[in-house]
Fold this protein.
Amino acid sequence: MNPFIKREYDYAIRICAYLAGQKPDKAIPLSRIVKLLAIPKPFATKIAHKLKKADVTATVQGKNGGIYLAKDSKKLSILDILKAMNFDSTLNECIYHHDICPLVGFCHIHNFFRDEERRLLKNFENKKIADLAIKMNDMSKIVNTNT
Amino acid sequence: MNPFIKREYDYAIRICAYLAGQKPDKAIPLSRIVKLLAIPKPFATKIAHKLKKADVTATVQGKNGGIYLAKDSKKLSILDILKAMNFDSTLNECIYHHDICPLVGFCHIHNFFRDEERRLLKNFENKKIADLAIKMNDMSKIVNTNT
DNA sequence: TTAAATATTACCCACACGGTATAATATAAC
DNA sequence: GTTATATTATACCGTGTGGGTAATATTTAA
């Protein structure tokens, strides 16, 4: 319940992690990725679109087309991907939405969560997608859930 | 949007922080707290009830009654309060809900968020409500928003 | 020309969160 | 004993939004 990382964000990271484990610049059809990673295709379509708009990925249209990483996977951070997806989660709304708390300017609760969130986002920035790459030999371990 | 700390949790922490700044064992009427901290009263009522059920606070009924901390504020952690409120947020649902990700057992994404969440909750455990206490002289700084 | 891929837009639905309403119960003070 | 002021308890509601679907257009290799 109530995830900081929405499904949408998680799927975006998964897609990028998969691409990071493939040969660079090789376009992979979304349909294939979708099956391997168990992402609903129409949903994946929307996500792929956002990633492209933010230049995280690039696509090749038409038959034999597909999607590939437009950035160096060693430099592409989790935070980059979240931002591409218009990341808007927060640990506590009081951090940004000042009018929900009367303790303006000195609230220790506010400060505590603000600091925690900063640290968290810093870690998201330090973590690169290359570190999370999904490799082919990993994929073989996937339990086949098809009927 | 999409806070890890729901309003409910934030209010609960605020109430406890306020009580931690008062004389121990002195029952304070919710109605007073509610005004000072800008919490809708019926909502505060529900929250107070949960806190009491978890023995974080205790109450005195009847006229001149109120609520007070039932624990040593130096030992009462943010995590304790969250648990009292049936905390159910997570950084990423994939951490607990295994069937939403086919990469069972070895997924680096899963592991990354699991570790981040552990660290976060550890910090919530280390932070005690005494550290966040709302003192009277702080309250004087509150901007009066009444009309 | 066709098949297979992405691009784009519009739509839907369930559910949880924040909040409200109401009535019951307890008790200190007079 | 009565009253005013608390907490207790339960039931209800509206709206936003997250997750997902549908349908169609467009591109391009074969």
Q: What stands out?
A: The mean pLDDT of chain B is 90. Chain B touches chain A through 47 residues (CB under 8 Å). The helical segments of chain B are 7-20, 30-37, 41-53, 78-84, 108-126, 136-139. Residues 10 and 51 of chain B are 13 Å apart (CA to CA).
